């Protein structure tokens, strides 16, 4: 397979970003895009030369593509991914895998039935150079005792709490699992926000299956976009470095512009992730974050939401990892 032909479902911000990223890669052709909002689809078509397919089912069933990117609304991810798996189509699905754990497990079951991994989930931090450096440094630091994941969004439009946790904090959940190779066994969450009862800040204390602990700190209306992870281990401590930016000194002060856009913060991670997925399609393999990772993270999302609602600690019974995801 010399040229990997890609179809994309969803041409909003995330889908359009994938289209542009993939179009810039050598040996990739973005052949088709499907989005019910025609202007979004037309904008992608005009930039990358893709055709527009009105029905996502027709795109999934098309012989004109070798791989599929799913970047449609969260509630559609599970069904579109299951359809792609049943067709045997390699798929890069944006997180979350589903909006509730029961739907995420349906995707896992479909892939197990297919007998092979076909889906890579869009937890792009696994490909972020800063996170990779942290993981590499941990090899010489002994057992992990504690992880602190800080995630600040410059989001000035209030979001429902299920979106805050399911769309944003799910990344931090996966980061903890990825860095520690342990599962979350209990969660105690609390939050605060405006007087209307919505949330801006959410903090979740997690106990892990190896005895370590993790704190997830999230802010949805901050002054800038910023992600940081600190890991404390037996023989040392390691902290992510942010993107390299100039220090501007003027009018008696010095400062670094952080920015408000996660695309800019993680541009390299998305490019490396998409390149890895393309190579997996080309070699008929599948690497990177799996549907198992997506479903397990969604269980923790559901537990955080339950804890916020009840004010109590929620225990999680870790599932036995199937051989397919070993």
Short key terms for the protein model shown above:
alpha/beta; Rossmann fold; Dihydrodipicolinate Reductase, domain 2; 7-stranded mixed β-sheet; 10 helices; 37% helix
Task: Explain the overall architecture.
The protein folds into 2 domains: 144 residues, 3-Layer(aba) Sandwich (Rossmann fold), CATH 3.40.50; 169 residues, Dihydrodipicolinate Reductase, domain 2 (2-Layer Sandwich), CATH 3.30.360.10. It is 37% helix and 27% strand. The protein contains 10 helices and 15 strands. The strands form 3 sheets. A 7-stranded mixed beta sheet has the order 12-11-7-10-9-8-15. Strands 3-2-1-4-5-6 form a 6-stranded parallel beta sheet, sandwiched between helices. The protein is globular. 43% of the residues are buried.
